[in-house]
Amino acid sequence: MMRAVCGVAVSGDPVLHAAHELAALHERREQLAGGDTSEIDWQRAHLVCEIDRWVVLRAPRPATTAPMHTESIGAVVDRMAHFAALTYRALACGAEAQLRAAQTRLHELACGYDDLVVEVANGARRLPDGPADGTPENGGAQPSRNLPRTE
């Protein structure tokens, strides 16, 4: 995941591809500085929904007692892409304090993302906007536990 949000194109995995696209959109957004970002933000929202849909279709059903996470996986990936873009911008500007702050946040988010992926894959964490009626959204197919990690 870190490679994808840091600009390395990944093929084959839809979540990593969307993460890479989110990173590119955040870089474009940073360059607009005060311009109209509504189209970029709409594209980001679409990619976040695509990630979330992919996760819901492939993650195992969580236990009914599993705690709810405050954000979807797509939202976490979007924030990771944002901090990757801020890291590159601070690096390009020579802004060391901002660079360290962005790198720290990106690292913290990567750790949190890894923890969240493990919990979701184990059914120990529920996500917002997951299936509410108790039936699997994947049509009863065996869920995949291979959500992308930050490695």
Major sheet description:
none
Order of helices and strands: HHHHH
Helix content: 55-70%
How many discrete structural domains? 1
Low-confidence stretches: 133-145
Radius of gyration: 16 Å
| C-alpha end-to-end distance | 6 Å
* Arithmetic mean pLDDT: 87
Task: Please work out how many helical segments DSSP would assign.
Answer: 5
* Alpha-beta classification: mainly alpha
Envelope shape = globular
| Proportion of strand residues | under 5%
InterPro entries: DUF4254 (IPR025350)
Region (Disordered): 125-151
Organism: Nocardia rhizosphaerae
Biased composition (Polar residues): 141-151
Summarize, please.
This protein has helices at 2-5, 14-32, 38-58, 73-93, 96-121.
Please tell me about this protein's structure.
This protein has helices at residues 2-5, 14-32, 38-58, 73-93, 96-121. The chain has 151 residues and is mainly α. Residues 141-151 have a biased composition (Polar residues).
List the defining traits of the structure above.
single chain, mainly alpha, 5 helices, globular, DUF4254 domain-containing protein
Topology:
Blueprint: H1 2-5, H2 14-32, H3 38-58, H4 73-93, H5 96-121
